[in-house]
Amino acid sequence: MLEKIGQIDQQIFLYLNNNFHSDFFDPIMFLLTKTGPWIPLYIFLSYLILKTYKKDAWWVFMAVGLTILFADQTASGLMKPFFERLRPCHEPLLEGMVHNYGYCGGGKFGFASSHASNSFGVATIMTLTLAFRYPWLKWLFAWAVFFSYTRIYLGVHYPGDILVGAMVGILSAVLGYFIMKSIKERFFTKNPIH
Fold first, then answer.
1. 110 domain residue, yes or no
2. Upstream peptide bond of 144 is cis (omega within 30 degrees of 0)
3. pLDDT in tens, 44-99
4. Dihedral through CA 165, CA 167, CA 171, CA 177, nearest 10?
5. Exposed end of the chain (fewer CB within 10 Å): N or C?
C-alpha cells in the first residue's frame, strides 16, 4: 500500500516538475522559495498583530513562535531522520528525470517539507488570531500553497512531502494557539483571545 502511494506520489511529482517549468521562471522560483523576499509580508503581519492586540501582542507572537518551533522541529528534527525518504533530486532511480534548479535542498532527506510545515503553520496561526478582524487574511493559504509548490518546481520535494508538511504546520498552529490561549486566559482573563 505504502509502496503504491509512493509510486503515485513520484508520478505526480514527475508530471508537475517536468511539464511546468521554463528557463525564464527558474531563477524567479528559486528566489521565491527563499525567506528573504517574504520579509515584507512578515513585517506586515507583525504590524497587524501589534495593531490588533496592542500590549497583548506578546501572546500572539508567542503562539507564532511555538507554531514555527513545533512545525519545523517535527518536519526536520523528527520526520526527516526517521523516514529517511530521499529528495527527488537525490533519488538514483530518478537521475536525469528531475528538473532541479539551484541546489538540492538543505539535506538529502525530504519527508516532510519544512517549507510546507512552516508556511501552512504561519497561515493557520494568522487565521486563528487575526481573521476575526481581517477575514481576507485567509489568502495566506494561497501563499502557503505557492511557497510550497516552489519546492516541487525546483525538484527538491514530492507532493506527498508537501501535503504531510502542510498537515504538520496546521496541527502545530492549532497546538501553539491553544497553548497561548490557555496561558492568556489563565493569567490574563480580562482580555480573552478571540
1. yes
2. no
3. 999 999 999 999 999 999 999 999 999 999 999 999 999 999 999 999 999 999 99
4. 80
5. N
